[in-house]
Write a structure and sequence with these properties.
10 helices; 6 strands; alpha/beta; six-stranded parallel β-sheet; about 210 residues
Length: about 210
């Protein structure tokens, strides 16, 4: 993959470059602010953009707004946001951009496995959707806290759906049968007014579709 990185913390930026190159990927540009990100993508046309949310000059949501700008361009690049924060103002809009394909949002302090992180970046580059369950939880909480309708087990299932897990994977994680998982998923979709879908990618999009209606 060809990856353009936008991260204002120099040590983290250099660490990401080294990590991706170690896995055989190319980083044609690594920048520290939002305007440089837009310029780098226009110049290099990467397979995927990896960006933080808060960057110079304002350290508010510059990286996320730049990612949205890029997603509106043609061709729109795949974008994975890697941040400490869930920027609620634009996060749902970004995840909905491009029909939800080729986009993701991960939280830095919840990335626990390097290989899984690189694999997630590859899934986004290939057109998939990767969303940290905590991002989904915070966005849902903003939306009149519909999670209060769910049972504790249904909340666990929703978190695993947000990771793109299959029914079999969820069953293994929770030590229940696939039939029980299907029942919990049906309950989640009913209580959140979501259409059922069999594909993991579409199930994440279903959660995001709920957010768009709030």
């Amino acid at each position: 993959m060809r990856v353009v990185i936008a991260e204002d913390a120099v040590l983290l930026r250099e660490g990401l470059i080294g990590l991706l190159e170690r896995f055989g990927h190319t980083v044609p540009a690594a920048v520290g602010d939002a305007p440089s990100l837009v310029a780098a993508v226009e110049e290099h046309r990467p397979d995927v953009v990896l960006t933080d949310v808060r960057m110079p000059p304002g350290f508010s949501d510059e990286g996320l707004r730049a990612a949205l700008e890029l997603r509106r361009s043609r061709p729109a690049p795949a974008v994975l946001v890697l941040s400490q924060y869930v920027e609620q103002t634009y996060a749902a809009e970004l995840l909905d951009s491009g029909g939800g394909a080729g986009v993701g949002y991960l939280l830095k302090d919840r990335v626990g496995d390097v290989r899984e992180f690189v694999d997630a970046l590859g899934r986004v580059a290939a057109g998939g959707t990767v969303v940290d369950p905590e991002v989904v939880r915070q966005l849902l909480r903003r939306s009149r806290d519909p999670l209060l309708r769910l049972t504790p087990r249904e909340r666990e299932v929703l978190a695993l759906i947000a990771e793109g897990r299959s029914n079999a994977s969820i069953a293994g994680e929770l030590f229940v049968t696939e039939a029980a998982v299907a029942k919990h998923i049906a309950g989640v979709f009913t209580k959140l007014d979501l259409p059922p879908a069999a594909d993991g990618h579409r199930r994440v999009l279903a959660v995001l579709a709920y957010l768009r209606r709030q």
